[in-house]
């Protein structure tokens, strides 16, 4: 047998859209080979690390041999109770820890697996464009049909509920505070979409990975606060961005009991849960580490101001938002986002994410991330100002 690519790779992998950043990644390697010190502002990977109390809890629990087995049930119960307490305190939402909360191996895992648990082949899912790529991948892998839901600047990057096509709709993905646009949603938006989904008999999956990554005192809202949301919705929360724990792989799904149960059944057939010591350390974070989160937010806030000021000096427009690790800015002069990113890389040695990489409607924008040491961000802004003369004239 000859192992050609086609012979090995399933049709579902072969059918995935080509990775738009590949060219850019190659150019980056080429630049680095030439000795250019490239500053990467293209990805959102928290660099400030987990709070000391969480690390200490992990170390302590890691020594407990009872946790070296498949995750004991009492550990999941402890974690779920902690989550339930936090959700009540933070959003005023009362959830049953036994039936309405489920740990996930990072929200990416839960988001990607959800369609396998709730969709049949051919079922339709609405997915934000631009958006986090995992929603569409999950739907395609489950044989579902993706309909793109446009996020436009005119409507604050919220989907226009009036224009949504809800025939045969089974599942809607939402993500606020939003990656990549940084937009936020208020409670009236969640009320509107719950109303809409109820009429269509559809499920809402809200990705709240950035719910606590906010600035200037802003408090994001939860889908589950909207009346009726718990009858048809679940929300994914992550420790990755909030606590700087992306490598730890832990998050949770919360909300409707039947959806949680379906996802739980699917997961029990493909994984065996999160390491108990990680669950207990994460619960410790939820309970005690908010002062540490506030400290990281100060640092992020400083970086954010540096980038915003730079964009203003460079005459570039960006979406003003109180949340996320990103700044979503407009490509100047009607240039294509990949071309703009390539030029910036070549002339300034700064890598930004071209908007089109997040979907067709991301064209015309680029995304800058603040998960890079403050000194490096400063250097990046100086370099950008230097090359901004190109489009300022
Ligand atoms: C980073 C990110 C996640 C992933 O979170 P994990 O919990 O690390 O899997 C989910 N959704 C969005 C929109 C993200 O940007």
In short:
It is built from 16 helices and twelve strands.
| CATH fold assignment of the largest domain | Aspartate Aminotransferase, domain 2
Number of domains: 2
Mean pLDDT across all residues, rounded?
Answer: 95
Small-molecule binders here are: pyridoxal-5'-phosphate
Strand tally is 12
What's the story with the biggest beta sheet? 7 strands, mixed
Rg on CA atoms, Å: 21 Å
The CATH class of the largest domain: Alpha Beta
Instruction: Going across the biggest sheet, name each strand in turn.
Output: 2-8-7-6-5-3-4
Instruction: Give me the strand/helix succession.
Output: HHHEHHEHEHEEHEHEHEHHHEHEEEHH
Q: Which class of secondary structure composition applies to the elements?
A: alpha/beta
Q: Give the termini separation.
A: 61 Å
Portion of residues in beta strands equals 5-15%
Helix run count: 16
Low-confidence stretches: none
CATH architectural designation of the largest domain: 3-Layer(aba) Sandwich
Describe the structure.
The protein is α/β, with parallel strands linked by helices and 393 residues long. The chain has 2 domains: 5-49 and 291-388, Aspartate Aminotransferase, domain 1 (Alpha-Beta Complex), CATH 3.90.1150.10; 52-289, Type I PLP-dependent aspartate aminotransferase-like (Major domain) (Aspartate Aminotransferase, domain 2), CATH 3.40.640.10. Helix content is 44%, strand content 14%. The protein has 16 helices and 12 strands. The protein has a 7-stranded mixed β-sheet with strand order 2-8-7-6-5-3-4, sandwiched between helices. A 3-stranded antiparallel β-sheet has the order 9-12-11. A two-stranded parallel ribbon has the order 1-10. β3 (124-129), α7 (134-141) and β4 (145-150) form a beta-alpha-beta unit. α13 (290-313) runs parallel beside α15 (374-387). The radius of gyration is 21 Å and the shape is globular. The relative contact order is 0.17. The chain binds pyridoxal-5'-phosphate. Pyridoxal-5'-phosphate is lined by residues 44, 106-108, 132, 175, 179, 207, 209, 238, 240-241, 246, 251. Pyridoxal-5'-phosphate binds next to α6 and α10.
